[in-house]
């Protein structure tokens, strides 16, 4: 048996020991920091993004159907169709900010995403109640969309409170 190697079979330490440590002891480890991000919130953001893709495609198809089959006043159709484009300009940054805030444990982006959720909810309510023609598919699509945004806002508020409490009492 070679006396230079320990009995455990692990190779002997050949370099100098780190400064301030006792030979044969493990170096002190940093205390672990709790991860505060919300998995539930991130799941709703992820599946909300996929729902948004399906919603947008179906919403455009419904508008095409309405434009071709129903006697739509010209101005109303143009305004309601442009809301679909405005919707995507708000929804994509809102989901990005919510995801970024959750992953980086930052309160600011999450709060801003909640602020951006308010005009989206107003658009969904408009699409459900105040459009020129409201079809059952409109009610279904916008009802699901309202549920997704509402759940995301609830998770955003809970996550924000968790981040604030963790930094306040640490």
Automatic annotation (TrEMBL):
In its UniProt entry, what is this protein called? Transmembrane protein
What's any GO biological process attached to this entry?
A: non-motile cilium assembly
The superkingdom of the source organism is Eukaryota
Question: What is the species of this protein?
Answer: Volvox carteri f. nagariensis
The UniProt entry lists membrane topology as: Multi-pass membrane protein
Q: Does the keyword Lyase apply?
A: no
- Indicate yes or no for the key word Transmembrane helix: yes
Keywords in UniProt for this one? Membrane, Transmembrane, Transmembrane helix
Region annotated Disordered sits at 1-31
Task: List the InterPro entries.
Answer: Uncharacterised_TM-17
């Amino acid at each position: 048996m070679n006396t230079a190697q320990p009995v455990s079979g692990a190779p002997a330490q050949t370099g100098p020991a780190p400064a301030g440590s006792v030979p044969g002891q493990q170096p002190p480890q940093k205390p672990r920091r709790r991860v505060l991000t919300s998995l539930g919130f991130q799941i709703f953001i992820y599946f909300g993004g996929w729902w948004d893709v399906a919603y947008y495609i179906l919403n455009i198809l419904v508008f095409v159907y309405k434009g071709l089959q129903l006697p739509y006043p010209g101005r109303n159709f143009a305004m309601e169709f442009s809301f679909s484009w405005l919707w995507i300009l708000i929804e994509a940054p809102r989901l990005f900010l919510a995801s970024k805030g959750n992953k980086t444990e930052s309160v600011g982006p999450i709060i801003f995403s909640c602020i951006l959720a308010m005009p989206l909810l107003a658009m969904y309510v408009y699409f459900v109640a105040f459009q020129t023609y409201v079809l059952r598919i409109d009610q279904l699509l916008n009802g699901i969309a309202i549920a997704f945004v509402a759940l995301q806002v609830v998770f955003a508020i809970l996550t924000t409170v968790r981040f604030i409490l963790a930094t306040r009492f640490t």
